[in-house]
Amino acid sequence: MPFLRILLLRLLTTAITLAGVAVIVFFVIRVVPGNPIAMMLPPGATEADIARLSALYGLDKPLVAQFGIWIAGVVQGDFGTSITTRQPVLDLVLGRLPATLELSIMALVMACLLGGAAALTGTRYRGGRTEGAIDVANGMALSVPDFLWGLVLILLFGVLVPVFHISGRVTPSLDLPFATNFYLFESLIRLRFDLWADIVAHMFMPALALAIPLAAIIGQLLKQSLKETMNLDYVTLARTKGYGETRVILREALRNAALPTLTLVGVQFTFLIGGTVIIERLFSYEGLGNMAIDAVINRDLPLIQGIVILFAVIFTGVNLIVDLLYTVLNPRLRHG
Amino acid sequence: MSFLSVRNLSVRLKKGPPLLRRVSLEVAAGEVRGLVGESGAGKSMIGKAVLGILPPSVEVTEGEIVLDGVDLLRLTLTERRRRIGAMAALIPQDPLTALNPSHRIGPQITDRLVDILGWTRADAAARARELLAEVQIPDPDRVLRSYPHELSGGMRQRILIASAFAAEPKLIVADEPTTALDVTVQKQILKLIAGMQARHGTALLFVTHDLGVVSKVCQRLSVLYAGMVVEDTSVADFFAAPRHAYSAALLAATPKYTDPSAGLNPVPEAVIAAVQAEVAAFDRGRAHG
Fold first, then answer.
1. Range of the domain at B183
2. In the structure, what pLDDT confidence band is assigned to residue B260 with cuts at 50, 70 and 90?
3. Whether A234 and B78 lie within 8 Å, measured CB to CB
4. pLDDT for B116-174, tens place per residue?
5. pLDDT at A249 over 70
6. d(Cα B188, Cα B183) in Å, to the nearest integer?
7. Rounded distance between C-alpha atoms, residue A311 and residue A298, angstroms
8. 3-state SS record for chain A
9. Chain B contacts of A239, Cβ < 8 Å?
10. Which residues of B touch A230 (CB under 8 A)?
């Protein structure tokens, strides 16, 4: 029962957070200079043209009234119409969401695998040269931001040794039989491994660029807590039972050491999703982030609002999942 | 023939001062030997060396640890670990930190049986139930499914004792197994260990700073000071007439709960000075030899 109560409480706080985000994004993008009407009209348009177009989009009403109209729609699931494409914002945003989700999750998996491997290897050979090398690699990975890793990867594996695609989500000439926009997932379900390979070859570099800094953070923190855990009494007791070093690390230490790392991964994963905005642009990957940049350039106010709200939903969702995972991993939190 | 014999074991901090100074002691099969001394005297260090769990910051500089006829220090790391895992076990000091918080109790008792000794899970589970009954834990099935944080300190120490006896080891090192417990629980746990030891015929290396415990549980006794064995004797002889001045002072320093007015008798400074001079003489001898 407490589990359900925690869940309900979290949903309530999530609703409050989202309401706050809605207010902030709505007013902030109207305070900054530049407006969509100016972007739409050709140079030399008259005052009357501007007024007519403003009235058409409801931009002549007081801000508070505009907000009221928008939020009333949002509550009913209507996020308005994009000014540039004249399509419903919700359709546009949900159409792009799968691409960004797949990219982020692939990056997260890569970061966990790379960081986990670094932490486990560093712990296994702690105090030696291997650990030193891992620390150096971690430091390098951490001190370079994701978009620079993106450029480095494009240079290495797109230009010098062209093994991966550097732009797009899938080769445009391919015939896609997909019913959803979860290409990576759906190609697996449909057993179309040819398509799957093409999609992975497109996603690999942007995902890796996003993953490298996070992998370094995971590697450092997990190694730190693994090393601390390795000195605890129950680990020592396990050694007397005849277990080897590797098994002691995996069986006794890893699960307990993973807890502090997990919290951090949750927070860092939201930063990673933020990073998709630049990375998607860099790799011309057709996701939410790329769409967000276009929306900002065109001052497409309803679309910006829709994207920001969706990002906020993802962020709070990620935090909720981390909290729930935490209770699963830590039996002491399950009661009370 | 001793089951465990430690000969001239010297251990020091890496590039630092010695922690054990040519320690020798024998434990016959089924015998209980007490290791007493002040904190820092090196009594736990001996137990750790025997179980192959010396911290990475210390190194063995000389000596032998012969377990059932084989010198552990001559084995490879893997061979040593296997041998210790199959023949010896540890009853740790603090039951609150010695159980893994994220594993259930059952696997923590049976893991060695299944993973190292190759028992089937069903056999191991039956054995765990039998052991919990032996350490007088009611409702063993519930306890086996519990996590450590759901059980009291006394319960957890009983579980650790059960786990130590699980594979019928020939030798158990008990590292101050009652120090972290309530006084009321201490007595029960002590009785339990003594009873289990007698029933199973296990040799026991009992590390403690409590001479009262020694008199109840042990047959032989090594008194340590600054990593040196100052006296190695039978418990009966020790309590009748300790040979070494430091041992005598240690015995005199034991508080008498039956006579609170007697007050505390710390080890006299002269005795400390004398035993420290012995240690210094030992170190000088080493430096020249």
1. 2-288
2. low
3. no
4. 899 999 999 999 999 999 999 999 999 999 999 999 999 999 999 999 999 999 999 99
5. yes
6. 9
7. 19
8. CHHHHHHHHHHHHHHHHHHHHHHHHHHHHHHCCCCHHHHHCCCCCCHHHHHHHHHHCCCCCCHHHHHHHHHHHHHCCCCCECCCCCCEHHHHHHHHHHHHHHHHHHHHHHHHHHHHHHHHHHHHCCCCHHHHHHHHHHHHHHHCCHHHHHHHHHHHHHHHCCCCCCCCCCCCCCCCCCCCCCHHHHHHHCCCHHHHHHHHHHHHHHHHHHHHHHHHHHHHHHHHHHHHHCCCHHHHHHHHCCCCHHHHHHHHHHHHHHHHHHHHHHHHHHHHHHHHHHHHHHCCCCCHHHHHHHHHHCCCHHHHHHHHHHHHHHHHHHHHHHHHHHHHHCHHHCCC
9. 51-53, 81
10. none
Type of residue at B186: Q
Does A336 contact chain B (CB < 8 Å)? Answer: no
**Could you report the per-residue pLDDT of A278-327, keeping only the tens digit for each?**
999 999 999 999 999 999 998 899 999 999 999 999 988 888 888 778 77
**Which domains, ranges and CATH numbers included, belong to chain A?**
2-75 (no CATH), 92-333 (1.10.3720.10)
The structural domain count of chain B equals 1
Average pLDDT over residues B190-196: 95
DSSP assigned state of B129: H
- Residues B129, B198: Cα–Cα separation, whole Å: 20
B25 HSE (CA, 13 A, CB side): 32
Among chain A residues, the shortest Cα distance to B77 is held by A244
Dihedral over Cα of B165, B143, B101, B178: its sign: negative
Candidate from A237, A242, A251 with C-beta closest to B84: A242
Tokens of A217: 């953070």
A117 vs A326: CA distance, rounded Å:
21
Substitution target in B48, B72, B102 with the highest count of A β-carbons within 10 Å is B102
Q: Report the distance separating Cα A201 and Cα A167, nearest Å.
A: 10
- In this complex, which of A241, A255, A330 lies closest to B112 when CB atoms are compared? A241
What is chain A's mean pLDDT, rounded?
90
Q: Is the pLDDT of residue A336 over 50?
A: no
